[in-house]
## 1
Amino acid sequence: MSNLLALAGVNTHIGHYHILQGVDFVVPHGGLTVLLGRNGAGKTTCLRTIMGLWQASAGRIEFDGTDIARRSTPAVAQLGIGYVPESMGIFTGLTVSENLTLAARDGPLDERRLDWMFRFFPALKKFWHLPAGHLSGGQKQMLAIARAIIEPKKLLLVDEPTKGLAPAIIAHMVDAFRELKRTDTTILLVEQNFHFARTLGDTVAVMDSGRIVHSGSMNDLADDEAQQQKLLGLSLDAHQ
Amino acid sequence: MSDDALRVPGIDKIPLALIPAIALVALPLIPSLPTWVTLTVAGLAMGMMIFIMASGLTLVFGLMDVMNFAHGAFITIGAFVATSVLIPLAGWTQADSLWLNLGAIIPAILAAMAVAGALGLVFERVIIMPVYGQHLKQILITMGGLIVAEQSIHVIWGPDIIPLPKPATLRGSFIFGDIAIEKYRVVAVIVGLAVFAAMFLLLNRTRIGLLIRAGVEDSEMVESLGYRIRRVFVGVFVAGSALAGLGGVMWALYQETVSSAMGMQVMILIFIVIIIGGLGSVGGCFIGALLVGLVANYVGFLAPKIALGSNILLMVLILLWRPQGLYPVAKR
Amino acid sequence: MQRLLSGDYPRSRVLGIVLVLILAGLALAPFVFPGTRSLNVAAKICVFILLVASYDLLLGYTGIVSFAHTMFFGLGAYGIGIAATRLGPTWSGLAVGSLAALALSALLSLAIGLLSLRVKTIFFAMITLAVASFFAILASQLSWLTGGEDGLTYKLPELLLPGTKLLEAPLLGVVISGRIVSYYIVFAGALCLFLALLRVVNSPFGRVLQAIRENDFRAEAIGYRSVVYRSAANCLSALAATAAGILYAVWLRYVGPDTTLSLDIMIDILLMVVIGGMGTLYGAVIGATLFVIAQNYLQDLMKLASDAAAGIPLLPSLVHPDRWLLWLGILFVLSVYHFPAGIVGRLRGNK
Ligand SMILES: Nc1ncnc2c1ncn2[C@@H]1O[C@H](COP(=O)(O)OP(=O)(O)OP(=O)(O)O)[C@@H](O)[C@H]1O
Ligand SMILES: [Mg+2]
C-alpha cells in the first residue's frame, strides 16, 4: 500500500512561536489514520498546515506524489482534500442546504450522493431549510462532515469530531465513518477519544510538543497497554 | 418533533419597523402634512444615496476585515469625473429634452463608475493588499491614500468648488394638491431601490452571493472548500468603489456642487450608517442609511441647530440598544 | 540627565545632535531667529511637539488609532478662549478656563475609552472620527459661546501682550516684550510636559502599554486588565493634548475651528507622528519640527521650483506650493510600509 500523504520535517511558526518542530508521518492510501496527542501537542496546527492555513516554514508535505507545502488553501482543497476543522466552520447564517450547495463546487448537488448521506445523517434532511446556526452541536458536526464529503474526496482531514458529543451520537458517528471507509476515501482523523480512535483506526501517529513520538499500526498500539500508558497516559488521565 | 422545529426563523424585523416608526413619530411634530411628505421623501432620497455609497464599504469589511478610510476618495473622484463629462455637454443637460439629458448623464455615470472602479482595483492591489490583517497599518495607510487622492484631485481639477447644475428634466417638482415632491429626490429613491434590489438578488439568489455571504462569516472555511476568496474580494472591492462613484455623482447633482472635500464630509455619515447597521451587513446598512436620512431631515427642520449632532445621537442610542449595530454579523 | 530623560536616550549620535540643535534653537528662538514669522513658527513647533508626542502615546505606544485627538486639543484652546472672553483677561480666568478644559477632557476621554476601547481598533477609529467631527460642528454652531466659524479673538493678562515692555533697553538687540514672555511660557510648558510624557512611557506603566500593543491576548493572560490600561493611556494622552491646546491659545490669542478642531489638523498630526517615528517620543520632536518648518518654508521653495517649471505640462501643478501635502502624503504611505519606525527608527538603524 503506497502513501497518499507524507509529511517530512514539517516546521510551522505561528507569530513568534515555533509550534511544529519537524513532523514526520505518513497516511497510507485507503485507510483511516488517527493522529493522537494531548492538548496543545500541535494536532490542529498540523492539519491547518496541511491545508495551507498556516504556511510551513520548512519541510515537505507530499500529497499523491506532489509537494503541496507552499500551496494556497484553495489550491490544496482543489486537489481533493476535505477539511472538517475543530470549530466545525459551519456558516451559521446559511441554511443547511446552502452550506452543502456551496461545498459542491462542481455544480448542482448530486441526488444519489445526497440520499446516501441522508442515510447516516438523517437530521440534515429534516432540517434542510433551517439556518445552520440553529442546529444542535451534534447536527452541526454532521453537517460539517457532510459538507466535506458532498463531493468525492481523496483525503479527508477531520479534527476531533467527537468533541462534546454524547456517547449515543458517537456510536452513530462510528457508523458514519465506517460507511465512509467503504468508499475509497482516505481519512486522517485527529482524536482525543482513544476508544473511538481504536474502533476506527488502521494506523496511528502520536504527537507531543510539536513532534511525532510514535507511529505504527493501530492494532499493535491497542494491544500494548504499557505503550499506551506511556504515550497517552497523560491525556487519558486528564480527560477521564 | 413538532412542526415548530422545522419553521425557518425569518430575519429580525424590529429594525425594519424603526423606519415607519420614526416617520410616524415625526408626523404629529411637524406642523403640516405637505411639509412632512417633503421631508420624508428628502430623507429617503438622502438615505438611498448614502446607502449606495456605503454598501460597498460595509461588504468589504465583512468579507475581508478591511476598513478603507479612503473610500470617500472614490466618491469625490466619481463626482469629478462626471463633472468633466457633463460640463462640455452642458448644452445637452440644459436642453429641455429627457433624451438629450439622458444622453449626457448616462455616459457621465458610466465614466464615473468605471474610473472609480479602476481606481479601486489599483488601490486594493497597491495600498491595501500588503497590510491585510494589520488593522493599525490599514487605517494609517488608507488615510495616507486619502491624502494622496485628495491632493491628486487638486492637481487635476484644481482646488475650487465647481458648480454642477442638475439636468433640466430633473429640476422642479411633482405637484399633488399642496404637496410638492422634488423630481430629483424621486429619481434618487428609485435608483437606490434598484441598487438595493440588485444587491439583494445577487446576494440571495446567486452562487457568487452565496460565496460572499459565506465569506463574510468565515473566509478561511470558504478557502478550505476550494474557493479563491481573494478574487471575490477584489470583485467586491471594485464594485463597491464603482458604487461609491455612482453615489458621488448623485450626491454632487443633489448638492449641485463638487468639491474635493465632499468625500470626507460624506464619509462621516457613511461611518455612522455602517456602524448603526452592523459592520458587514448590507441589509443593516440599508436600514441605517434610511434612518440617518430621515432623522437628519426631520431634526433639520424641527431644530436646525442640533441637526448635525442628531446622527451621532442616533448612533449612540442604537449602540446602547444593540452594541453590535442593528444586524450584527456572525463572525468566526 | 538620566533622570530628566527617564533613561531614554536618543541612542544615535545624529539623532542626539539634531535633538540638541532643535532644543537650542527653540530655547533661543527669540534671539537667534527674531521676527514675528519665525517666532510664530517656533511657538507652533513647541505646541505641536507636545501634541504629537501625546498622540504617539496612543498610537505608537498603545496601538490605538484615535481621530478625536484634535477634539481634546480644541477643548484646551477653547477653554482659554472662552474664559478670556467671558471672565476677562485675568490670570484667574485663564486658570479657571484651563482647569475646566482639563476636567472636561478627562471625563470625555474616560467615557469614550470605557465605552469603546474594548472593541476593535477599527471600530474605535471610526467612532472617534464621528465624535470629533461632531465636536467640530458643535463648535461652529454654538456661535454665542464659541464665536462660530469666526472663532474668538481675546485679550490676555497685561504681562503677555505684545505692547508690554519688560526691560527698558533691548536685550541682545531684542525688545523683551510680552510676546517673548508668552513664548517662554509655551516653550517651558511644552518642554516640561514632554519630559513628563517621556517619564510615562518609560515607567512600568508604559511597558505594560507596549506589552498590550504587542499582544493584547497575552497581556490579558498575564493579568493586566488591558481595557483599564488603555483607558488610562487614552485619558493621559487627552490631557496632554488639552494642555497643548491651552498653550496654543495663549500664544495665538485667537481660537477657531480651523486652528484646532479641523480634520486637517488631525491628518497633520498623523503625518508628523508617522514620518517622525511611531513609538519613539523623539519621533514627535523630529516630525513636528520638520512638518511645521516645511509647512511654512517649503512652500516658498516649491514656489521657486514651480515658477522654474512653468511651461512644462503638469509639472508646475505638481510642484505648486499648495501641493506639498501630496508629497508628504506619498512619504507617509511609504514610511508606513517601509520604515514604520520613521526617521528616528532609520537614524537608530533599526530594521
Ligand atoms: N493562533 C495561535 N497563536 C499562537 N499560538 C497558537 C495559535 N494556535 C495554536 N497555538 C499554539 O500551538 C500549540 C499547538 O496547538 P494546537 O491547537 O495545534 O494543539 P492541539 O494538539 O490541536 O490541541 P487540542 O487537543 O487542545 O485541540 C499550542 O501550544 C497553542 O497554544
Ligand atoms: Mg486541536
Note: The pocket of magnesium ion (ligand 2) is lined by residues A 43-44, 86 (CB under 6 Å).
## 2
Amino acid sequence: MSEVDDLPRFPFPVDAALEPPAEWAELRSKCPVAHVKLASGDQAALITRHEDVRQILSDPRFTRPTPGDDSARVADSEDGGIFNSDMASVIPQHGEAHLVWRRGIGKWFTAKRMNALRPGIAAMAEQLIDDMVAKGTPADLKASLGFPLPVWVICDMLGVPDADRDRFSHWSDVMLSMTRFSTAEMKAAEQEFTRYMAGHVALKRANPGEDILSALITDPEPMSDATLIATGIGLLIAGHETTANMITKMVAMLLSDRSRWESLLADPSLVRTAVEESLRLDANAGIGMSRYITEDVEIAGTVLPRGTTAMCSMAAANRDEEAFARASEMDLARTPNQHLAFGAGAHACLGQPLARTELQVVLEVLLRKLPSLDLAVAVEDLRRVEGLVVGGLVELPVRW
Amino acid sequence: MKITVDQDKCCGAGTCVLLAPDVFDQRDEDGIVVLLDEAPPAELHSLVHEAASVCPAAAISVTS
Ligand code: HEM
C-alpha cells in the first residue's frame, strides 16, 4: 500500500485554465507508461503518447472497465461515479452485444441526419444568444449558451417536450459531478431521471414520433425497455456536459488571443478546422478514458500485465510533437487533424457528428451575430471546474 | 486514386460523410460506411485523404 502512496497523483494540478500541466510533455518524452495514483487511491498506468493512446483505445480486446472486473475506480465516491453504476451495466460494453447496441443507435446518428438538424440547432443558438443579449453585457457565455444548447438538442433528439428541458439540465449536472454533490444526491437524481425515462419510453411506445427512441422502438429488432431507458440516460450523460464544456472552452480559446477570432471573422470557412483544433488543444478534457487490460500487451517497450487499468490521456496525446507539427500552437487551418478528443476504435464517440455539428453551428452563429465578442475578464482569471469525467470552466464572462 | 473501406472496422462515426459526402455515405440500417465513388475526381482528393487519416476506426485506405 505504501508503494501506491508514493506514486504521483493523477490528474495533475494546473493553475492556468487553458494550459496543460507540465507533466504531460515530460511523461511523453521520458515515461510513456507512468504509474499513477487516482483520486480513489487505486493505481493506474497513465498513457500519454498519441501512438500508444490510439493503439490501446482501438484494441478490440480492451474495453471500458465495468463493475464486475477488478479494475481501478476513478473517483473516491463509493461506487466510483456514473461509469461504474448499474445503469452503465445495462448498456452492453463488450463484444457482439455492444456492436448490436451501437449499430442500433448509430442508425440515427448519421451525417445526413446531422446536416438536417443544422437549421434547428442554429435557431436554438440564435434564441439563446438573443436572450443573452437582451439581459445585457457582460454575460456568462457558459450559463447562457454553452450549457443549455446541448441539452435542448438532446431533448429534441429524445422527443422530450421543451417544458422538461430544465429538469434534464439538473439531472445531468448532478449525475456527472463527482465532487459537488453527495452520493445520496447523485443516487436521487439518477432514480428520478430513470422514473421519468420509464414514463417517457411508455409514452413513445403508445405513440411513436420522429425521435431516436421511437426509431429504436419500431425497429425490427426492438430493444428492451431497460435498454431504452439506459440509452436515453446514457445519451444525456455522454452528450450534455461534454459538449457544453467544449462550447465554452472553444470560445475561450478563440477569444484568449483575439487575432484568432478576427481570422475567423475574416474567413468563416475556417470554422470546421477551427473546431477540430479546439478539440485537439483542449487542455482540460477530464482525466481521459480508462481500459481494463485483460491480456498482457506491449506499449512503448513496456509490458502492461493483465489486470492493469490503463488511463489513456487523449489530451496529452493531442499535444504529442511526434504526431502534430508545432503541436503546442493553435493552427486554425490544421489539416488533417488526427486528434483523439473523441477516442478511437470501436468505442469512439458515437455522438461525434452531433458534437461537431453543434460546435460548428454555435461558432458560425456567434461570429455572425456577435462579431465584437470578447472576454470580459483577463485570461488568467478564468477558473477551471475540476470534473473527473469532463473538465470545463466555472464560467466564461464575455462582452460584445 | 483508389479507395477501399472496411465495413467490419467502421464504427459509424460519420466523419468521412461530413467531409466528403460525394464519396462516402452511411447505410440507413446502421450508419456503417458505404463507398459511393471509389475513384473520385482530383478536386476531392485532399478531402478523401483527410477523411482516411482522421477516420477513428482506420477503416478507409487510399492508394494513388
Ligand atoms: C465535444 C463533445 C464530446 C466529446 C469530447 C466526447 C467524447 C467521447 C469519448 C472520448 C468517448 C469514448 C469513450 C471510450 O473510448 O471509452 C465517447 C463515447 C461516447 N459518446 Fe461522446 N463526446 C462528445 C459528445 C457526445 C454527444 C453529443 C453524444 C450523443 C448525444 C455522445 C455520445 C457518446 C456515446 C453514446 C459514446 C459511447 C460509445 C461506445 O461506447 O460505443 N458524445 N465520447
Note: Residues 78-84 of chain A have pLDDT under 50 and may be disordered.
## 3
Amino acid sequence: MDLIRLKNVEKKYKNGVTAIYDLSLAIEKGAFVFVIGGSGSGKSTLIKMLYREEKPTKGQVIVGGLDVAKLKNKKVYKLRRKLGIVFQDYRLLPKMTVYENVAFALECIGEKKDAIRTKVLKALEDVGLKNKVHEYPDNLSGGEQQRVAIARAIVNDPKLLLCDEPTGNLDPEKSMEIMKVLEDINKLRGTTIIMATHDKEIVNKMKKQVITLKDGHLVKYKQKGTYVE
Amino acid sequence: MKAFRMLGRSIRDAVKSVIRNFSLSLASISCITITLIIVAVAIIASLNVQNFTKEIERDMTIVVFLDNDVTEEEIKEIETKIKRIENVEHYTFYSKTDVKKQMQQESEVFKTVLENWEDSESPLKDTFQVKVKEIEIISKTAKTIEKIDKVSVVRYGEGMVDKMVKAFSAVEKITYGVVAALILVTVFLIVNTIKLTISARRKEIEIMRLVGASNITIKMPFIIEGMILGLFGSIVPIIMVIYGYFAFYRNFDGYLYSRLIQLIQPEPFVYQTSLMVIAIGIVVGMIGSASAVRRYLKV
Ligand SMILES: Nc1ncnc2c1ncn2[C@@H]1O[C@H](COP(=O)(O)OP(=O)(O)O)[C@@H](O)[C@H]1O
Ligand SMILES: [Mg+2]
C-alpha cells in the first residue's frame, strides 16, 4: 500500500522560481527512499511539501490518506503528528536536557507523564543514547545531537520519518552511524523513511530506493539505486 | 484530563516567562495597577452617586402651596386636577393646621411663635405634597400643577439634585476618558511584553509546530501570560478597595455632609467591586496578549 502519492505536483515559489515541475510518484509503506540531486534541485522543497511547510501550486500530495494541499492551516498539526522530521542543523532546544528535548515533542501533544517516560526512554535507547539522558545538547558531539533529534522525531512512533540532509554536518564515520540508526528504525519499527541527501557514498552503500531530481524534474526512480549525476 | 494537562503546562510556561522578562512584566503590572486603581475609584464613586441620587429622588416631593383665600370647594377642584395628571403617583393634603402642628413638632422656637397666630392671619398655607412616578419629568409635572387656579407657588428640590447629578456626570465622563487612555497604554505595554516572550521562544514555537502541537496549545501560554499580568496587576487595587473603602466609610460614618447622602454599606459592596476589578484586569491582560499573539505569532 502507498503511504505517499504525488500526482502532477508543481511548486512555484512566490518569487517566480519553479522548484518542482510535474512530479508524480508513489512511495509504499515501510520503504526507505533517498531523494538525491545537486544543490537547488528541489529536494528540500519536496520534503517541505510532505510535511505541509509548503503547499504545491498544482497537483495533489497525499500523505497517509491526507490531502496535504487541501489541509487547512489549523489542521496541519494532524499531519505533523503522523510524521517525524529531522534537519541538518538538529534544532534542539539548548536549555533542555536530552530527555527534556525528546519529551517536549510528547508534552506538546498532551501525552501523559508515565507514557512520556516510557516512550522517551525507548526512543533514546533506539538511537543509542540511553547513557546521555541528562546531558545538555551543547555537551554532545554533532552525531549525538543528531541522534537526539532522531529520537525526538520517532518518539511518537510516526508512520513516516522525513530527513533533510541529516548527515550534512557530520564526518563520514558519524554519518554512517546515523545511517545505521535510521536503517534500524526502518527495519524494527517499520517506519517509512524519506531522506534527502547529496552524499554519494551513503547512497551507494545503503542500496535503497532512489529518487533523482535535477532542476526540479524527476530524472529517475529506482529500486536499489545508486547515485548518478 | 488532557485539556487539564495542557492547561497546567500553559500556566507553568506563562509564570516562567513572567519571571524571565521580569522588568517588562513589572512595567505592565504597574500600569495595570494604576489603571485598576483609577477604575476602582471610578466604580466606587459612580455606584455611590447612583445610589444616593436614587435615595434623594425617592425623597423628592412637589410641594403645592394654595392661595390664602382658597375655599373648601376650590381645594376639592384642585385635588381632582392634580389627581388627573399622568405622572402623579400619590399625594397628601396638609391644611394650615396640619402644617402648623408639623412645624411645632420640629422645633421649640416654632412652637411658641406659632401658638400666638390665629389660623386666619397665619402666614402658613394649605399644601398638597405630591410624589411623582418618573423623576425625570418632575419639572414638567410641577409646571402643569402651577397652571391650576388658586395655586400660588410650587416647589420641589429643583437645582440641587440637578446640579449634583450634572457635576457627577461631568466627573464621570472625564474619568471614563482617563480610564480609556490608561487601558490603551496598558494594552500596548502588554502587547510588547508578550511580543518579547514570543521572540524569546521562537525556536521552541517552531519545534512545537513541527511535532504537531495544535494552534491552541501554541497560543495558550501567551494568552495566559497576559491574564496573569492582569491578575497580578489587580492585587494592589483590590487591597486598596477593601481597606480603603472600609476606612472611608468609617471615617464619614456612612454618609457625606447630610443624612441625605448615604454611602453604600461596605459589605458585600467591596467584594463585588473587587471581583469587578479582577475581571477587568484579567480581561485587559487577555486583550493585550491575544492581540500580540494574533500579530506576532502566525500559526
Ligand atoms: N522559500 C523559497 N522562496 C523562493 N525560492 C526558493 C525557496 N526555497 C527554495 N527556493 C528555490 O527553489 C529551488 C529548489 O530549492 P531547494 O528545494 O531548497 O533545493 P535543494 O534542497 O535540492 O538544494 C532553488 O532554486 C531555490 O533557490
Ligand atoms: Mg536542501
Note: The helical segments of chain A are 43-50, 76-80, 98-107, 113-126, 142-154, 172-189, 200-206.
